[in-house]
Amino acid sequence: MAHVVIIGGGFAGVWSAAGAALARGEADLRITLIAPNDHLVLRPRLYEPEPDLAKVELRRILKPIGVEHLRATVSTIDTARRVVVADGEEIGYDRLVLAAGSKLFPPDGLPGAERLFDIDTLDGARRLTEHLRGREDYSAVVVGAGFVGLEAATALADRGRVLLVDRSRVLAAPLGPGPRKEIEAALDQLGIEYRLGTTVTEVGDGYAVLSDGARVEADAVVWSVGMRAGELTRQISDELDHLGRVPVDQHLRALPEVFVAGDAAAAAFDAEHTVMQACQHATPLGKVAGYNAAADLLGVPPRDFTPGPYVTCLDLGGAGGLFTRGWDRRVMASGADGAVIKKGINQAIHPPVDDASEILAAAGRVYIELPFFPRDEETAAPAA
Ligand SMILES: Cc1cc2nc3c(=O)[nH]c(=O)nc-3n(C[C@H](O)[C@H](O)[C@H](O)COP(=O)(O)OP(=O)(O)OC[C@H]3O[C@@H](n4cnc5c(N)ncnc54)[C@H](O)[C@@H]3O)c2cc1C
Q1: What are the structural domains, with CATH classification, of the chain?
Q2: Segment 33-76, tens digit of pLDDT
Q3: In angstroms, what is the span from residue 302 Cα to ligand 1's centroid?
């Protein structure tokens, strides 16, 4: 029987599995997802106070749709022989979906790097939570004022003093100027100090040294910058982008028998942009890549990857949420309104479980624009 193998059990891998199962219908096709974890980790929620709540059992998604789960880590992809090596065992495939995601690459040679915390993985977020549990007035340094760093800093400000540092000379550079005023206001409201053009050069027991020479108190230093695709992408292509991602066509194909999805894929969003390393894109990428991998074997027409409008939503802790639309990140909602939207998103990213028809129906909806997203026309000034 033909075999679709999916590497990765994150959003892209899980939705690839569901996409492949949808294309399979009643046909004979074996689908196997290989990932070391028993849970889909909802990484966008790892800044929350109880990160263990941010996970869904893979079994409850894969079993109902007839997808096997092999708990293993892939070390080698041999595209010439069409096999992957997982925990030392060779597994043959007819079509492969690489959905092994991204991870933080720790800074090279930073003294005290072993003391750094992160919220990149469930284990990382647990470690930070346990380290600070029960402390009322800790001091934390967060490195990086991008999407993850801002959420980490604003969440930590709930019970402690937070210093946010970033190498860039402008605040929240990765988000562009659109939401900068609102972000500045949120940091001020929460009493978060930020130092720009600055990074951490040493981490010690209870302190951090900054690149301007200052030594600051730090019960925890949280590193948030340097997320890149995992190393397996190098076994698929020599032409990776600056985030280590594999270039793919509009069907998310990288090689004749290999598709790539999620944070590992440099798919075109439009003529100007590639997709973001974001769950918002990993989910539809997975649905399309998995569908196309199976469709290719079954002689079914492929789907194009057609993402919906780009939006962003940040949780800014006690300052609420921030929802933006478009690549210029126009602010559509902030404060309490933004927080309601973020809460809705954090629920909506949970895949359906235990019910094959719901899971497969969701796999068929490649992009969903949620009804509670404010639209341009709703915030536009009334005509004179
Ligand atoms: C704190 C935080 C906040 C975020 N907030 C948002 C947000 O608000 N909105 C948003 O859209 N996105 C957000 N993101 C980004 C989002 O979480 C990622 O883009 C998304 O998780 C990518 O999904 P993925 O399936 O491609 O990869 P991952 O989630 O990285 O999953 C990869 C999977 O592959 C497995 N794997 C890795 N290597 C191997 C191997 N060699 N063999 C087998 N399996 C392997 C892993 O175990 C995992 O199961 C956030 C991320 C973080 C860390």
Answers
A1: 3-103+227-309 (3.50.50.60), 106-223 (3.50.50.60)
A2: 999 999 999 999 999 999 999 999 999 999 999 999 999 999 99
A3: 25
